Hints:
Elements: H1 10-38, H2 45-72, H3 81-109, H4 121-177, H5 179-195, H6 197-215, E1 223-224, H7 225-243, E2 247-253, E3 261-262, H8 268-277, E4 286-295, E5 298-305, H9 317-330, E6 335-340, E7 346-353
Parallel strand pairs: 2-4
Antiparallel strand pairs: 1-3, 4-5, 5-7, 6-7
Amino acid sequence: MTPIPPPIAEPARRNGWLLLVAGWGAFFVLWTLFLLGWGQGETPLMAATISGLITTGTAALLGVAVWRLTDRLAWPDELKLGFFLWQLMAALIFSAAWTATAPIIGVLMEGGSISEITWNRQNISWRLFMGIWLYFIVVGVSYSLRINRRLQAQRALAMQAESLAAKANLQAMRSQLRPHFLFNALHSVGSLIESDPDAAVDGMERLGDLLRYTIREREEDRVELSEEWEFVEDYIALQQLRFGDRVRVQADFDRACMGHRVPPFLIQPLVENAFIHGPGSTPEGGFIRVEGHCASGVLTVKVEDDGPGLDSGTGGSGLDNLKRRLEALYGSASSLNISEREEGGVCAIITLPLED
Length: 356
């Protein structure tokens, strides 16, 4: 899904239109005064005003085409000769259209014929030069507005991603600090102290690592996949202390992917969802399989189980938050799809672009 930037507030939209009208209004005034000065007092005010309206109106209409051109021909990250050649060609077309259109409209408004227009070479050369100058002003303003909009959208998405990451951090912390989770984990570890002291020590270490990862402050919104996977392994180990052999977990992760960076708490919500709504919710248990592979610049993570299926209430705020975080960070380049398996159970698949 494509991220939806925050809607432009009405005052900001209204201010944009006011600035547009003010800009072309200033051009109209300057052009009219120029005609009056050019005629040295011999040009009637009404004639100069009408000519100013025609000249400004045609420039404004052609400016709409320039605005659309800046959308099709976006400002490149690296300036190349081809970009400047396209702009030069567009400037010549704009100037020629502006130079020819204004006199034609003026003659037609007076009821004359286009064949009656006298094309003065000096006047045409001057207007062509002015048209090129006007084009580069319009195209410069258009690119400035588009770049400013893009930066505002990026800032908004960055703020949204930061907010969602903080929410995910808090949500993961609450998930792990829930009293029943801590009670079950500590009870499972405590029951091993006499029968299997080494397993008890390992369980306490994993619990400590898990809590440290959860509450740690992060300056960046990415972690290495290897670090995220270690966190998930600690979570799985603690859950298996509770469920034992009733829930079998299989993992197949491509080690070549481990150096890439991913958002924290990317995989754990899917695994937790599989434990709670999957085989962990049934007396007979079952399996959970976690797979991760990277190819063609894309990381794919799949978590599937053979539990009751989507009817068991699979989903919740954790997965909703994860989906919104992926949209904010990657836009349409990422996805989270949850579906039922033909053999029974649920399959959740995350795809996102690889980052070194």
